[in-house]
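Lab notebook page, bench 4
Experiment: in silico fold of construct C2
Operator: M.H.
Input chain length: 611 residues
Purpose: comparison with the prior construct
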Amino acid sequence: MPPQPTIPDAVFQSFEERSDPRAVAPRVAALRAHLASNQLDGFLIPRADVHQGEYVPDCDARLAYVTGFTGSAGLAVLGRDRGALLVDSRYTLQAPAQTDLEIFEVVDTTSTSPGEWIAANFPGGSVMGFDPWLLTPGMLDTLKSALEKAEIRLVPVENPIDSLWRDRPAPPEGPIEVLGHNRTGKPASDKLEELRRAMTEEAADAAVFTLPESLCWLFNIRGRDVPHNPFVLGFAIVPAEGTPTLFLPANKLTDENHTALAGVAALRDKDEFGTALEELAKQGKAVWFDPATAPSRVRMILAEGGARLIEKRDPVLLPKARKNDAELAGMREAQRLDGVAMARFLAWFDREAPNGNLTEIDIVKQLEAFRRDEPTAVDVSFETISGSGPNGAIVHYRVSEKTNRRLIPGELMLLDSGGQYLSGTTDITRTMATGPVASEQKDRFTRVLKGMIAISRVRFPRGTTGAQIDILARQFLWQVGLTYNHGTGHGVGAFLSVHEGPAGISPRYTVPFEEGMVLSNEPGFYREGEYGIRIENLIVVRESDVGDGKFLEFETLTLAPIDKRLIDTTLLDENERAWLDAYHASVRKEIGPLLDAEDRAWLDEATSALV
């Protein structure tokens, strides 16, 4: 057997096991004692923090602390004698493995909503506590409407977990960086002027921002407060006239920060945000906030203080999604840099995988090392999904030291990863062959590929939404009675979050596509216990050369080979073959000159025309 390759250490990602089901019972016991002493029949534990982000700092990972579940979305309902961990279909395999099933029933929210479960499992007259800083008004309204008929009351309370969590980590202490408009394409003053025009249309005296990506984009700042996203965690209040106020941790602000933000925003400590809302409400102002993302406590403070509420979508989301020329140039550069890393990795993988010595962690470490060779790479954009064989069927699988599996030659390998470069954000999935491929796997891979190509090639009239084109990606699987239980695509930020709204490709996305939006295109197929398949490129919306300016189309940004060994070419039509050959030719042209001779030879073969 060939020797085990030398694998460099990972820097951006760790592999420790973050959950221990044995720790759940004593923590639940302490929380239940609190419920009993405070006349509460239950308590809601959302995964989100006050900012409703996909990633939360360790100090705010309350759901993981109590239940052991570490996924990016979920809600626990804990009663005095029963409990549920409610997750969506991405996590129905992960959640049972991480929690104590004697305490928490794992419930799939695609079939049972939290409100439905509570109404069915708690008697009328029950009192359910919740932290108003952690549930949005939208979530709260939905729950209330489901529980009113069951005569179950929701009451805001101080979060008991915070006082029971004895070894709670400290808040993040990462630096704050103020970007120049050479990188952002537009100074903060221009963005604020555009925002105020939108506020005038709504007769808003002020707008409140709680989403980190909105805050960072609007004021051209970045930070390191959460894993893998260059976020600063804070709040902002923007008046229709006068200077905005940024609420940031005072201990993190440097003299350079104060100088760079002078004239752009007044700075107050993050802890003063609630007081500032009270001051705003007392003036009877008309205040705009997003009920889908702001804390319910924001609504409560404003309403109780006498403000007029304007509850509409965050006005920064859409302008942020429409990348300007500088942001798009940065995103293209990031995909090129990432393409070099991916080509080097895929060539290495092809050499090593057949030897049978690679583990899932080895694969993650090596890919990260190739990315880190680029000096402008500052992080991965999310924890790499490295699923060999049956682990590839776990859609959001996270490899740990406990789950790490050796890749057996002949299995499929699914690798979903991305990088954060100073120029932009990347997200790419490739499924790789490691030996002879079964005919079923080739069939499924090719149907997924056909769906990805259908999205890549489609032209559509302005006003079209992701909900309308999602079927294009699924149609070839549907023809044989198959599908996948995740969205086909999500928005991607420019050196911001790898997952951003408001547009995407799935039945739930109803915001029309506009030029400059960057999205993922990632259909898949999963055979539980056997293998997973996903192919993902990033695409950007641009005006089409047909339709006299009334039509749009996608330009593919990602530059990496798609494994031809997994394709059943008899299932491809002429247009699909032509698209794939042209795509591979562009990869070869853009990436080939940047590789050494050995990797260049591998790329030439990997991107050669289909036969």
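Observations: The first strand starts at residue 42 and ends at 46. The CA atoms of residues 139 and 292 lie 7 Å apart.
Next step: discuss at group meeting.
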